[in-house]
Automatic annotation (TrEMBL):
Gene3D superfamilies: 1.50.10.10. It is an enzyme of class 2 (transferase). GO terms for biological process: carbohydrate metabolic process; peptide modification. SMART domains: LANC_like. This is Glutathione S-transferase LANCL1. CDD domains: euk_LANCL. It catalyses: RX + glutathione = an S-substituted glutathione + a halide anion + H(+); 1-chloro-2,4-dinitrobenzene + glutathione = 2,4-dinitrophenyl-S-glutathione + chloride + H(+). It comes from the Eukaryota. The keyword Magnesium does not apply. Belongs to the LanC-like protein family. It comes from Albula goreensis.
Length: 405
């Protein structure tokens, strides 16, 4: 277990004003000094990233490791810093991603839906409606494939239906209106629920969990490929799941997942896996926490909040990973869990922890962590760390990219 993370060197929040006075005020507003450090680090890392991207794979269109992820980062920076130049950079990278679409996958992070959605938003913000509408039209052409489950489409986030669903939600959020009718989301959720019921019956597991999902013949638990990520989306308001199915299908399935929790408060990567090792957004507490917090909102049961707080404790103790600083399996992605807890509870304890993980990230490359395969990408590398540091400047508006709604 100790081979996967580094010892957390920071003292935890003690409730005193002195503990946070150099980070944020009693209302959660970051101090000028700390916000300045964040902004300066963002500028420095951006320069490193741009230089490093000169040797990146020119054919990788994806949000996860390719050009679309860089475009998404610049869209985010344009939101945070209100600089039009960032919008143009976003469009430059989005255009590059459109030139090398996968023509296989349909999701936001690992397929063609992400480049089309991000480009549509960039064109829209730069007052180029014809190009924006063209991208939207191409995005919606994928809808039938998703609903019908063609190409043996799974249901999870990175390669499945949820990954396409996020693309549609992203469009409506970014346009600030129901640009894509909610009927599209409802049809996808109906297909996801039917898929989960069918697999549960096939495996004769409906007594334990009415919904069951697999990816590569494994029943994954976490946010990226598994149950927690799917249930998080099914519990979102407005997607047409409805109170009856939320109670009959989603809640007992989610309760079954909750029973898989290790004594430590962490969660296994797959059903049946007894190894309490992974504390990543993709596998473990940092991804499951979003499902638990949404469940607390929807069902009002304080057990879900208690479990989420346990997740926070696990991440504080074991979340500074030797794998690095990225979103999928790194310190920045783990820190988003603290921001989610802060938004839900408004307890400064969680904002403090997010700030401390940010301080770790601001010492990028100084801890002997592993260099990821795509060191400047959004989900494995430096771009994701920059995204998190920028989000920390506005903690109550922060959202884990390409996942949190």
């Amino acid at each position: 277990m100790d081979k996967r993370f580094l010892k957390n060197p920071y003292a935890d929040y003690d409730g005193s004003a002195a503990c946070t006075q150099h980070l944020f005020d009693p209302h959660g507003k970051l101090t000028e000094e700390f916000a300045g450090r964040l902004s300066n680090t963002i500028s420095e890392l951006l320069s490193h990233m741009e230089n490093g991207l000169k040797s990146a794979d020119p054919r990788d269109c994806t949000g996860y490791t390719g050009w679309c992820g860089i475009a998404l980062l610049y869209l985010h920076l344009a939101d945070v810093f209100r600089e039009t130049s960032f919008l143009q950079r976003a469009l430059d990278y989005a255009s590059r991603s459109l030139q090398c679409l996968t023509r296989r996958s349909v999701t936001f992070l690992c397929g063609d839906a992400g480049p089309l959605a991000v480009a549509a938003v960039a064109y829209h913000r730069l007052q180029r409606p014809q190009e924006s509408d063209d991208c939207l039209g191409r995005l919606l052409q994928l809808h039938r494939t998703v609903v019908k489950g063609e190409r043996n489409l799974p249901d999870e986030l990175l390669y499945g239906r949820i990954g396409y669903l996020f693309s549609l939600v992203f469009i409506n959020q970014q346009f600030g209106q129901e640009k894509i009718p909610m009927q599209y989301m409802q049809e996808i959720c109906d297909a996801i629920l039917a898929s989960g019921e069918n697999l549960s019956k096939k495996c004769r597991g409906q007594d334990k969990t009415p919904l069951l999902y697999e990816w590569y013949q494994e029943y994954y638990v976490g946010a990226a490929h598994g149950l927690a990520g799917i249930y998080y989306f099914l519990m979102q308001p407005g997607f047409g799941v409805g109170d009856e199915r939320l109670l009959r299908l989603v809640k007992p399935s989610m309760d079954y997942l909750c029973h898989l929790k290790f004594p430590s408060g962490n969660y296994p990567p797959c059903i049946g896996d007894s190894r309490d090792e992974l504390v990543h957004w993709c596998h473990g507490s940092p991804g499951v926490i979003y499902m638990l917090l949404q469940a607390h909102k929807v069902y009002g049961d304080d057990r879900y909040l208690a479990d989420a707080l346990e997740c926070g404790q696990v991440i504080w103790q074991r979340g500074l990973l030797k794998k690095g600083y990225g979103l999928c399996h790194g310190a920045a992605g783990n820190a988003y869990a603290f921001l989610a807890l802060y938004k839900h509870t408004h307890n400064p304890h969680h904002l403090y922890r997010a700030c401390k993980f940010a301080e770790w990230c601001m010492d990028y490359g100084r801890h002997g962590c592993r260099t990821p395969d795509t060191p400047f990408s959004l989900f494995e590398g430096m771009a994701g760390t920059i995204y998190f540091l920028a989000d920390l400047l506005q903690p109550l508006r922060s959202k884990f990219p390409a996942f949190e709604i």
